[in-house]
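> call design_seq(struct)
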């Protein structure tokens, strides 16, 4: 593991949303952790833009159906993976590079009885330890920005998907290259590297062997979303500090 991988891991180790924080919130709200339903985690563990609507969109665009085996890359605490398992009746393998997130995902899966439907697996997206043609769908949310070799990751996804199956993902995009100073700030603050444009992603997908079905730019709606996210993170940092799990970011 290189220093760049460790920087991304450290970003998520210090992230204000953690399994400990989620369980502390649950205890506060319901008094105990007995008989927690998966739906009770949805307001707490959906750490991505669009929340449940984004999960629904990805499920629809991959054609996710009951009984499918789904790969969720850079799955974090497996919030979306639990949603897919619960709402779509699929089994999910959640691949993530951060040990504390993988262990936290296992705890949350067991808490809501989904340990047999959602399997967190430690490792990066560029080297998948799965057989060829072993998944029916692949998804990822706002995570390829951390990946230094997106083409390699997409080729691995193509390899493990069954013929004719789909990958659908969301990510930060840039229509034009950032000045170096801004690139450095994105890397230092968010672990973001090699941000792509939509045409850039389309070219990478074709090189990896995919046919591009659709792409959507949601930049115009992000102003309101970002304001809400800033408010959420400020609240989460305060809650994490109160619970004894302060963020360093």
């Amino acid at each position: 593991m290189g220093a760049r991988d460790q920087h991304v891991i450290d970003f998520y180790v210090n992230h204000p949303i953690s399994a400990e924080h989620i369980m502390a919130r649950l205890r506060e709200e319901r008094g105990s952790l007995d008989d927690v339903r998966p739906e009770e985690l949805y307001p707490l563990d959906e750490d991505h833009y669009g929340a449940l609507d984004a999960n629904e969109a990805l499920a629809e665009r991959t054609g996710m159906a009951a009984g499918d085996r789904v790969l969720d890359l850079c799955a974090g605490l497996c919030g979306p993976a639990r949603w897919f398992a619960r709402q779509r009746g699929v089994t999910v393998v959640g691949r993530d590079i951060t040990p504390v997130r993988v262990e936290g995902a296992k705890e949350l899966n067991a808490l809501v009885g989904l340990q047999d439907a959602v399997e967190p697996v430690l490792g990066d997206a560029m080297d998948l330890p799965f057989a060829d043609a072993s998944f029916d769908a692949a998804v990822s949310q706002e995570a390829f920005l951390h990946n230094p070799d997106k083409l390699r990751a997409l080729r691995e996804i193509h390899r493990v998907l069954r013929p004719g199956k789909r990958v659908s993902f969301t990510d930060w995009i840039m229509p034009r290259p950032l000045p170096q100073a801004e690139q450095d700030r994105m890397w230092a603050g968010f672990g973001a590297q090699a941000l792509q444009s939509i045409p850039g992603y389309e070219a990478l997908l074709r090189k990896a062997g995919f046919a591009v079905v659709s792409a959507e730019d949601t930049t115009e709606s992000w102003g309101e979303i970002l304001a809400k996210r800033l408010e959420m993170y400020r609240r989460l940092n305060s809650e994490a500090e109160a619970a004894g799990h302060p963020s360093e970011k």
